[in-house]
Specification:
Blueprint lengths: L6 H52 L6 H9 L15 E6 L6 H11 L3 E7 L9 E4 L4 H11 L3 E4 L5 H4 L4 E5 L4
Parallel strand pairs: 1-2, 1-5, 3-4
Antiparallel strand pairs: 3-5
Length: about 180
């Protein structure tokens, strides 16, 4: 018996058909699993959310021991009222070396409603930017001061002692740029 096709040509259609059928079956399986998860999720979802809400309401939020000690040691600053501009005391120091810059800046600070306690020179000159430094617990006042005077750098008190502040809450050290 003679066959018009070679034996290798008969094998190819069978293999191709098997690969196509396997790919279609895999796609169908993925779609069925996805549909099952969606349907199952719709039935279980409300119950899971309700159980989570009940459990969250039953348990108080855990508090770390260190945080609990800090909360007892001093009142939170957010509970304390923000000082008014008239009660916020400021020291203005010249840190750029330009003569009269501190007194001119102090006039602007007073015009904005702040109380200037002292005007003078910083311990060193050559500050690139004007800095607003604040004593502990007066960050909110420093941020308001920065906004009022269109400044950019606010930092905790560094390099100065509270005695050097003479009772001031904020220190403005003038730099070459605002």
């Amino acid at each position: 018996m003679e066959h018009p096709l070679a034996p290798t040509e008969l094998v190819r259609p069978w293999r191709t058909a098997t690969l196509v059928a396997t790919a279609i079956a895999a796609v169908e399986l993925v779609l069925l699993i996805g549909a099952g998860l969606v349907l199952l999720g719709r039935q279980i979802g409300p119950n899971v959310h309700a159980a989570a809400a009940r459990e969250a309401a039953a348990k108080p939020a855990p508090v770390a021991p260190a945080e609990a000690k800090k909360a007892k040691a001093r009142p939170h600053r957010a509970a304390v009222k923000l000082l008014s501009r008239a009660h916020t005391k400021v020291v203005v120091l010249n840190g750029n070396g330009v003569a009269g810059a501190a007194s001119q800046a102090a006039s602007l600070v007073q015009a904005r409603g702040y109380r200037v306690l002292e005007v003078g020179n910083a311990q060193r000159t050559g500050y690139a930017r004007t800095i607003v430094m604040y004593r502990p617990h007066f960050r909110a006042e420093a941020l308001r001061f920065r906004r009022d005077l269109n400044l950019s750098v606010v930092a905790p008190l560094d390099g100065m002692t509270p005695a050097q502040l003479k009772g001031a809450h904020l220190v403005e050290i003038l730099g070459a740029a605002r």
